[in-house]
Amino acid sequence: MNAWLPNPVSPFSYQGLTVWLGAIATLAIFSFLFRENRVYRFAEHTLLGLGIGFGIAATITDIIIPKWWNPLTQGLRGHHYGIVALAIVEVLLGLFWYGLYHRKTVWLSRIVMGLSIGAGAGLAFKAEINDKLPQIIASFKSPYVPAAEVTAFNNPISNTVFIAVMLSVLSYFFFSVEQRHPVLRAGSRIGRVFLMLTFGVFFSNAIMTRMSVFIERVWFLLTQWLRMGA
């Protein structure tokens, strides 16, 4: 019975100090369950500050130094002035973002903003095509499957159900004509049911993900901080 009494780890060591800091931060975040308070806000702001600091450090070590500073210095040593000119253009475009802070230079920020949005839209469009096109192609399933090709996920029953669900869901978003026809109206209602089932699955997965994080934190407090059962 005494094995389950709290026996907190000593904070007078590096490992113990990290455990205590993790426990205090966890309890500070959990205090929001009671109500919003200063302890929770302090922990929240500390987390945001650490995230921003880590982001700045990662930007310097993973982007600026290897992708800008090293090519610039190597170009200067090797007299590759094209690389040097490109690095100067890059830093100038980066400085254009700070034109947002003055009315007379805001037009400079619009240049890089337009370039960034255009490049981002192009990359996103390409990613959407690469991601959605295989799904569209895979949706063309035949209800007839030869006996030699039948599997658990490729058989006449599953393919027929898949086609029926897909057509009913698509009919729900068919707004070109008014849904007065009984077949279209029934298909739309069935599609709405399948959509709600799908959203329910997504919501339950999100809840389970958060519950797993919560359970991991509680387990950390009980086993590594309080050392209950040790």
How far is the first residue's CA from the last residue's CA?
11 Å
Instruction: Please work out how many helical segments DSSP would assign.
Output: 6
Largest sheet: none
Number of strands: 0
Query: Helical proportion?
Result: over 70%
Helix vs. strand class: mainly alpha
Computed over alpha carbons, the radius of gyration is 29 Å
Order of helices and strands: HHHHHH
Describe the structure in your own words:
With 230 residues, the chain is an all-alpha fold. Among the domains are: 7-79, no CATH class; 153-230. It has helices spanning 14-30, 38-77, 81-96, 106-138, 156-172, 182-225. The longest helix is centred in the C-terminal third of the chain and has 44 residues, at 182-225. It is extended, with a radius of gyration of 29 Å.
Key words describing this protein structure:
single chain, 230 residues, mainly alpha
What is the topology?
Blueprint: H1 14-30, H2 38-77, H3 81-96, H4 106-138, H5 156-172, H6 182-225
Helix pairs in contact: 1-2, 1-6, 2-3, 5-6
Short synopsis of the structure:
By secondary structure, the protein is mainly α. The chain has six helices and no strands. Among the domains are: 73 residues, no CATH class; 78 residues.
